[in-house]
Amino acid sequence: MKIAIVCYPTFGGSGVVATELGIALSNRGHEIHFVTYKQPVRLEQLNNNVHFHEVHVPEYPLFQHQPYDLALSSKLVDTIRMHKIDVLHVHYAIPHAYAGYMAKKMLQEEGIFIPMITTLHGTDITLVGKHPFYKPAVNFSINKSDIVTSVSENLKASTLNLFNIEKEIEVIPNFIDKSKYRTGFTDCQRTLMADENEKIITHISNFRKVKRIPDVIKVFNLIQKETPAKLLMVGDGPERENAENFCEELGITDKVLFLGNSNQIDKILCFSDLFLLPSKTESFGLAALEAMINRTPVVSSNAGGIPEVNIQGVTGFLSEVGDVEEMAANALKILKDESLLNAFKKNAEENAYRFDILKILPLYEKVYEKAFEYRFKNVH
Ligand code: GMT
Predict the structure, then answer these.
(1) How far does the centroid of ligand 1 lie from the alpha carbon of residue 240, in Å?
(2) Which of 42, 90, 153, 284 to mutate to test the pocket of ligand 1 (most atoms within 8 A of CB)?
(3) Cα-Cα-Cα-Cα dihedral sign, residues 237, 238, 239, 244
(4) Which of 4, 9, 202, 289 could serve as 232's disulfide partner, Cβ 3.0–4.6 Å?
(5) How far apart are CA 7 and CA 40, in angstroms?
(6) Ligand 1 pocket check: which of 17, 19, 20, 123 to mutate, most ligand atoms within 8 Å of Cβ?
(7) Is the pTM of this model over 0.90?
(8) Is the pLDDT of residue 380 over 60?
């Protein structure tokens, strides 16, 4: 099948999922066309089955804001027409579903029917999408999608609760490719990051407010008072500077490494003992799943879809948002008992297999087939 995928090309979870999905589909013989403003960060190699179409938005002095959705919908029209695309899959509703729908209507004028699948990822619903400035357009474009999927049961429930949705929402969880982990490299050099006796705690995110970065540092501060430890902060974003200042205030700068964005998080997670994810909300928590497949237990908040991934007392622990004392106590429970830590590491890895790509990919393929049938019925 020829599939056009629209996504954000950045380190955010939705872009990562879209890119990994496209690559996996291409390995199964599908022809994938990524349409976005920059080559997606996890898209390392283009080939016969993986194409990238860059959306350019020309600067014009009249515009205070350049109209990306307009440029995207035009690019979609051209790409779909030229490459005879069968199915359009947009990740993240804003503005992708909206632009996708416009492309669909323009193509319809030419007698081309393109079915559109919209995958909801979280902040497009729970944070940005529900804002009154966006809500009517988001509601409209979800209802106008041929098929809607969401990455967790919790996100499906939030969408139905916050919007006026007439469409069925199918839950297809995020995934990891277990064959990719700990096969590509053997140099898990723990000593590069910490002393022999120190435990390694990791946090990975885009450092936005929703991640509650100060809580990560507070939890770590309590941990390091009880046991020797290092904190690896991976990623970048608006809260990073405050976070670095906070570490200075607490006098723990020598114990916290801010590593910036990384494309090789498995090389960092391979020597991590614990992953912290105290987010205010999280539709799924792909970062937690990536930690788990790398044998890293998770101490997280009990928010959004996280409990669908992190299992209380099995793969880690979950606490109320902001309860840093309990998070630190739970972390210490595992970190100070080597055999418990090893049991949690094993559980984390085993539970991550629930989301192996081999289980999830066929669910997307089924959705594409269903969407493709709409094309013949020309139901919209
Ligand atoms: O977490 C972020 O800020 C990035 C965001 C995104 O849209 O890229 O991630 C969302 O989508 C991921 C992939 O489906 C989910 O795993 C994240 O939980 C979700 N983030 C939030 O809901 C805050």
Answers:
(1) 18
(2) 284
(3) positive
(4) 202
(5) 8
(6) 123
(7) yes
(8) no
